[in-house]
Amino acid sequence: MALAVMIQGTASDVGKSVLVAGLCRIFAQDGLSVAPFKSQNMALNSGITPDGKEMGRAQIFQAEAAGIAPDVRMNPVLLKPTSDCKAQVILMGKVATNMDAVTFHNYKPRLRSQIQEVYRSLAAGHEVMVLEGAGSPAEINLRDRDIVNMGMAELAECPVILVADIDRGGVFAAIYGTIALLAEHEKRRVKGVIINKFRGDKALLYSGVEQIEALTGVPVLGVMPWLKVDLEDEDSVVLERGKYDADTPKDLDIAVIQLPYMSNFTDFNALAAQPDVRLRYVSQAYELQGCDLVILPGSKNTLSDLLWVRKSGFEKALLAHHRKGGAVLGICGGYQMLGEHIFDAVESGLDEMPGIGLLDVVTRFASEKTTTRVAGKTLPALPGFFNACAVLSLEGYEIHMGETQRGAHVEPFVRLSECNAQPYDSLDGAVSADGNALGTYLHGVFDNGEFTRALLNGLRERKGLKAWEGELFDYQQHKHQQFDILASAMREHIDIESIYQIMREHQEQLCI
């Protein structure tokens, strides 16, 4: 039987995903086989497993922290919102249906046995399981059908550690209120508390820690300081809080249009980490002024986001940027928007819409979703400044429901030679004849260091700057360094031995 612990939070965005990644790293460093698990994820950030299954990005980066390949069993249920009240439901990596919130809430009990079976299957192959909850276990209106917080802890028969974010204020009320709203048998499952994102002198916290321990009967296992670690975030709420705001001038200024239904914003983490790049997420059209590259990201509701681009003034601003010779790049839904026309009888409820018109391509949505990991090389004769990126190896993944056809006035971007580890031959993407607009279905394209540096050096050349002469930035190495920084900080500020003891004692009780 695997050791197990579950990280739950007093609210969303308290740091659960990052702390789970840190525990996975610590247990892996200690020589244990460890895997993350989150039964139900709601996020527009997703990725693809080596066998072509779709799962939440959070569990993918947690698997990276654990030193193992992502496995769809780590996230059997993924909800991708398509509107304020509806979401695409993905079960075990494949699209099942679309449901509104009430319908899915009523559907959840039917998933319990499948989730438990999947969890046990994954746990059977590992020595330690680190589970993650969602939101808060004190959402009493949802408790009767819960499958992701205390409901999941019961299915997995594991202890719980509660995480609270002190940076947002009211941390002791959040801890006390959360535990107070739990049923008695649920309270007994909570074995520790972690206070997260603390700034200042810990001495000021001691009396509060003593009082909250006395009030709840639950020990505080540590106080994590606010860490400047560059790790992926589960959803784009961090953009609203300004995490990626960058006011420091850099040689290159790149703007990502922050779409209402933006998906996979973590595509741009590798860009943000480049030493000569200032990356900005922009929500007002005037913010495009002065940027060197505009990026239209992926979208879970392409036509609705395209309509927003049009009504908000971004289309005019983007076309003006392009007329002045500015570069534009679209990924997935952004690629589709840059085309001449989109026909959609699947995703948005809208039938069709003219695109922005920077690429001679037409997209028709299909009911079957493409979910693949791919590899290939950029073509040898890319137009314009994108020629700096010619004949370079690329790896990435595709998640889309549209098929895009190129016209006569664009060139393909990349020839794909591998799909889900199998031989493959297909062309992806489009580059405009003037060489200033590029679209591709490849998520993760900027994780390819040689390609990204070639693109950035092309932008530098257009500005009259010398090519970057520093060492080629290795994003994968960078991520692993960040995991190690996180693990080291957690060992310093959290009683990791107590977490081991909590898991062992709970396992012993189960065996009695």
TrEMBL record:
State the active site.
C332 (nucleophile), H443
The record places domain CobQ/CobB/MinD/ParA nucleotide binding at 5-228
Fetch the Pfam families from UniProt. CbiA, GATase_3
Q: Which UniProt keywords apply?
A: Cobalamin biosynthesis, Glutamine amidotransferase
CobB/CobQ-like glutamine amidotransferase domain: from which residue to which, for each copy? 253-450
Pathway annotation: Cofactor biosynthesis; adenosylcobalamin biosynthesis
- Name the InterPro entries for this protein: Class_I_gatase-like (IPR029062), CobQ/CobB/MinD/ParA_Nub-bd_dom (IPR002586), CobQ_GATase1 (IPR033949), CobQ_N (IPR047045), CobQ_synth (IPR004459), GATase_3 (IPR011698), P-loop_NTPase (IPR027417)
Q: Which residues cross the membrane?
A: none
The source's domain of life comes to Bacteria
- SUPFAM superfamilies documented for this protein: Class I glutamine amidotransferase-like, P-loop containing nucleoside triphosphate hydrolases
User: What PANTHER family does the record tag this protein with?
Assistant: COBYRIC ACID SYNTHASE (PTHR21343:SF1), DETHIOBIOTIN SYNTHETASE (PTHR21343)
Homology family? Belongs to the CobB/CobQ family. CobQ subfamily.
* Entries under HAMAP family matching the protein: CobQ
Q: Know the name of this protein?
A: Cobyric acid synthase
Species of provenance: Cedecea colo
Give me the gene this protein comes from. Answer: cobQ
